[in-house]
Amino acid sequence: MTDKIAYSRHGDVAVLRIQNPPVNALGHAVREGLAANMDRAEADEGVRAVVIVGDGRAFIAGADITEFGKTPLEPHLPDLCNRIEASPLLVVASMHGVSLGGGLEVALSAHYRIAQPSSRVGLPEVHLGLIPGAGGTQRLPRVAGVENAIDIITTGRHIKAAEAAAMGLLDKVEEGDPQAVGIAYAEGLLAAGAARRPVSELPAPAPIDWDAAYAAVLKKGRGQLSPAQAVRAVQASVEMPFDEGLKAERKMFSDLMKTDQREGMIHAFFSERAVSNLPELKGVEPRDLKAIGVIGGGTMGAGIATAALLSGLRVTLLEMTDDAAEAARGRIAGNLSGALKRGKISQDKHDAMLNDALVVATDYDALKDADLVIEAVFEEMEVKKKVFTQLDAVCKPGAVLATNTSYLDVNEIAAITNRPEDVIGLHFFSPAHVMKLLEVVVADKTAKDVTATGFALGKMLGKVAVRAGVCDGFIGNRILSTYRTAADHMILDGASPFQIDKALTDFGFAMGPYAVADLAGLDIGWAMRKRLAPTRDPRERVGEYPDRLCEAGHFGQKTGKGFYIYETGQRGGTPNPEVMDLIEAERAEKGITPKEFTDEQIVRRYMAAMVNEAAKVVGEGIARRPLDVDMTLLFGYGFPRYRGGPLKWADLTGLPELLKDIERYAEEDDYFWAPAPLLKQLVAEGRSFDDLNKEAGK
């Protein structure tokens, strides 16, 4: 079957044009067609060169994701690459759009590479828990050097054409029709008497300190194996003959295919795409979204406004005083100047956003034409209700009214208006123009097209939008509250906050819970504990030491002291000795004899609490699918991507053993550790959380 490749002849140059829309993924038919048409070109009398080019948007965007998890059919990609490289004809890859993963490996198996100025290349396999497996780790160092190869492979980043050419990955960058440019380049090489130049025959580059490079990459990846393994594969390109290096790469690739990390990252890859794809919104059109309002110009409001401006929306930001409005404009200007410095926007775009697309106002009437308004005011029900009463009075019919609450009851907020069907929760994470998670909180009366509009906004802003139901804390903060409580219990019982933080960063979290609390501000948790105190169950164990810290004015990073002490100009903090004094005093007061916890025991309890609460969240329908929980924790709470999310981790760890541990912990505290009914049901039926994802996807 060769219909995915169009063969044409132009003098003594044969063109193999890949036609597998939309992005020429390297499916079986493409691999088979390339191999067959290489045979055809070599048998075509008078052909001296071959140009491989892609139709449509890209050269080759990588593997065909529909083949993931299936047994690959011949020709396998490594064999195809070797076959292209071994051709007696001179082979040119003419690249445009993206050439990623196997696409770049095909290009590296050509003898020469030319690309459009706008094209990008990369080897992103580490994002799937793998390394390149078709010669990428062996050929790339020979053309771009060891340091560049390690950077490209271990980060998985996209490299622009100019940078790729500067490092030797591309031979030429030229604007024009990719096929015409490729043919002209091949003809020029032939006219100049250029020889075939198989990358495998180029000299191996000079060695580096491999152990140091491996250790640095492992540390940077917070325990992810595939980037560090890529260093060893590149090492093989230097230390072994080419054929042996290919075998070493293939073995490492195969070994990584069998790891839990690879399973976790494949789960994350597909779940990220599935999470915003809700059956209930099939065929539901979102409302118009061109102009939005934001109420409150603090860190959160300014971040939301910035994200909206960067996505091309017009924004009216409302503050209560002229001074507050100017301060909000300053925060947004600071955010946009950061985007300008990083090259995300041009000076013209920056100026247009700040001067034309942004309006800062102090009167609610300024919001009368907004398609959607998001309030980001103080987290207090009465304050929110006042705002929504005003919005109900001034906003046009059909405008979506959104609250950026973290915990509060969206149904109660909606009920204060005469249009509860237009009200929705849009819970952003700070800083809102950087953090990718958006919880779309659907209240009891929220109209379907309003929900669809929430997801449409998430897509416009480049967010990972997750549907959540109404409860205290929705998906993320409800689960966070539970696993943080498990950590607090361990502190009362004998662990230190610093040991817990270290155990969890070693597990792969970006930060430990107490470092995170310092970053967010300890006053947030203090306010919440005071809010919940009147309705607290007497069986609940609550430590008082964090309140003592707050009462002393220590709120974390913003005051220079919390669980850690922060010195100006120093990265991170050092443990605050006063914290252990407060903890030890409370243990003595409560008659608790401290016990030792190993790092493994800390991780197990912390994760068991997370999984148990997550199973309750799914069981109650607050999250519709386990993958919704996984994506929430991945994109909003620093959960290590290579573990897939807490419920994927639970599946890989084993639900029966996890339930046994929870039941054992419940012997000490049956209130906190009450096992989730859904978890018990899955274990009884011999099923997994992933089974629920599959059922929801049908």
From TrEMBL:
The keyword RNA-binding does not apply. GO terms for molecular function: (3S)-3-hydroxyacyl-CoA dehydrogenase (NAD+) activity; enoyl-CoA hydratase activity; isomerase activity; NAD+ binding. The keyword Transmembrane helix does not apply. Pfam families: 3HCDH, 3HCDH_N, ECH_1. It is found in: Peroxisome. InterPro entries: 3-OHacyl-CoA_DH_NAD-bd, 3HC_DH_C, 6-PGluconate_DH-like_C_sf, ClpP/crotonase-like_dom_sf, Enoyl-CoA_hyd/isom_CS, Enoyl-CoA_hydra/iso, NAD(P)-bd_dom_sf. It catalyses: a (3S)-3-hydroxyacyl-CoA + NAD(+) = a 3-oxoacyl-CoA + NADH + H(+). Its main location: other. Residues 292-468 form the 3-hydroxyacyl-CoA dehydrogenase NAD binding domain. Residues 473-566, 602-687 form the 3-hydroxyacyl-CoA dehydrogenase C-terminal domain. Pathway: Lipid metabolism; fatty acid beta-oxidation. GO terms for biological process: fatty acid beta-oxidation. Keywords: Fatty acid metabolism, Isomerase, Lipid degradation, Lipid metabolism, Lyase, Multifunctional enzyme, NAD, Oxidoreductase, Peroxisome. PANTHER family: 3-HYDROXYACYL-COA DEHYROGENASE. In the N-terminal section; belongs to the enoyl-CoA hydratase/isomerase family. Belongs to the enoyl-CoA hydratase/isomerase family. This is FAD-dependent oxidoreductase. It comes from Sulfitobacter sabulilitoris.
